[in-house]
Structure formats: structure tokens, C-alpha cells
Here is the input.
Amino acid sequence: MPKQAFNPRRLLVVHAHPDDESLFSGHIIAERLAAGAEVYVLTLTRGERGKVKLEELKGLEGQLRAMGAFRAGELRVALDELRKAGSTLHHSFAGTRAFLDSGMRINAMGRPTKKHRTDEMSLASASTAVIAEDIERVIKEFKPDAILTYNAKGGYGHPDHKMAHQATAMAIRQYRRARKRAPQFWVLAEPGERFDVAIGNKTTAKFKRAALEAHSSQVSIFAETYSVSNAEIRYDEPERIRKANPSPLVHLRPILTFFWALPLGVLLGLAGSLLHSVQVSPTDHFPIGLIVAFTMVASLALALRLLRNSRGALYLLTLSFVSTVFWLSQTQPGSDVIIYGNEVGNIWAYGSAAICGLVMLFPRLRPGTWRRSASGHR
Here is the structure.
């Protein structure tokens, strides 16, 4: 296989947060600018949930608007430093929606993952198609030869990096449908991964270092190295990239993420239908089973609304749940009906559907308002 060459004259770089452009592609941007190419940096968020390194800036943490404005200022300075390698460097933030930094958490396996609760405008909670629309708009305006972003794993696994990859891949595929020629797709290769091109030397290192110094709230700067977490990396360490193809699954992934709700709805329908007619005793007709079944439905529907920040999974669960209940109310071959057409059966069939509909249609659910730390409790 011939060695891949990376020499675009118009390069679009898509990153999730301010400082990513310098951390992961500072060498690449400087090298392309020095070669006379035009570079466009598209930043999807303003890094509102960043954790600062400097003690005097700790007060910014948790103040999303202030943190975003501060990091946007750092980004402007960093881009000015990179422009010293060549002046044709453009920048913008994604669209007019002002996506928020999602933050991240470390799961039980020690890996970065999405937080349990994210703001509805967080990048990781936004629709992939909506973000792709913003990226495609820049592609149409800038007309790049190549586009660079994170790999499918999001580099080290940040949920915003994963979303940036998925949205960029979707934007390229959509752009390709309307036009015969689409820009090349390049992704950042992590250490140990296969790569096609390594870019970076002492010449580009001085531009990368100056750009990283502008992000001092996020990056620890040393004489020969810099650090974001614990590991120190040399400024002249090359950045490795490889050519990729945007996966056709990017259009299906947003749908597939909700499909697990279908079997969950079936199981809920079966369990509730078997429980709904249970009574305390033959002489005590208290509908304990019906209450338990309704509690199951309400709890699961509320959990999907609160934990998913979306109605998509609830729609599918309700569809399979109502279908299961309807099927169980019909006479099955060789058996009796499970849900009888009596008062209890009708209350279960229609009441459970009404509970799902109520939770689905309720305009807004914010668990934060129920906590003691919420403003209403102060």
C-alpha cells in the first residue's frame, strides 16, 4: 500500500473544546500554515466545564458563562500564536446554538464516559444530526480539501470528542451525497494505534508551545514538556494522523441507541399484566398487584425521562409496552386471556397507557429542583 500523503491546501480542523486545537493538532496547523495552506478551526463548545490548573482561577469552575468566556479568550490568543506560522487561519464556534461542554466522569472501569446527568444543551446530549448540520455549513462555505478530527473512540474517550467524530463523519457523508467530490477524512491516532503520517518537529514545536502557553488555565507548562493530566509530553513530540472513511453507521447510531427500550417495554408489559390481578387474599380484594404494576410503569417512565434527557427511549418503550398489553388482552391459541375485560383489566390497560402518555407529554422534568441544593430550597 502506498504511503499516504497529507498536504491539503484547505484544511478544516474540528475540535470539541478550546485548547484541543493546540494539544492535538498544534503541529499540524503550524505545518500547514507554514506551507501556505488555509486552515479553518471549528470549535464546538467553549469549554464551560473545564477544570483549571491555576489556583487563582478556581473560582471560575462551575460558573459556565464565565468559564466559557475566559477559555474563549485563551483560544483567541492561542490562534494568534499559531497565525505567526502563516496568516491564513480562520476560526468560529459551531452555529448559533452555543453547545455546552458536557464534562465527563470516570466509570468503574477507570475510563472516561458521559456524566449521568447532562445539560440539555451539552454537546454529548445534542442530536448528532444537528451538530452535523453546523459542520456541513462550514464545509460548504470553506470547501476544504481535508477534514481532521478525533478518532471514533474520541481519543482518550471524552464524550464530546466522540460526538465531534460522529457529527463530522455524518456531515461528510451528507456533503458527499449532494456532490461528487467530498474532502478527505483524517483522524488523530492515539499512541499505539496505526497511523499514516506523523507531523511535528522543532520548527513547529515553538508555535505549539506558544499556543499551549495561552491555555495556561488548562495546561501545565514546563521548560521542555507540557502536561494536562499526570503524563508529561515533549513539545516536539509529533502528532500522528491516519486517513479514514466516515462510517455509514453514523446515521443509524442515534436510532440504535434507543432500540434497547423495545424489549424493555415488552418485559414491562408482561410483568405488569401478570401482576395486575393479584389481590391480598381471596377475601380481601385490595388491588395490591394493580398498584405495584402501576408503580413499575410510572417509575420506569420517569427514569427514562430523567436519566436520558430525551423522550426517544420512552417513545419506543411505550410503543412496545402498549402493543404487548394489547396482545395479552386477546385470546391466545390454546390458552385464556391474561388481561380480562373486567374493571381491573380495563383500569390496567388504559391506566398504564395513560401514565406513559402523561410522563411523555409533561413539558419539563428537572430533578435538580427537587434537591436541597436547588435554589427553591435555600
Summary: The first helix runs from residue 20 to 34. The longest strand covers residues 10-15. The chain has two domains: 10-254, 258-370. The chain has a mean pLDDT of 87.
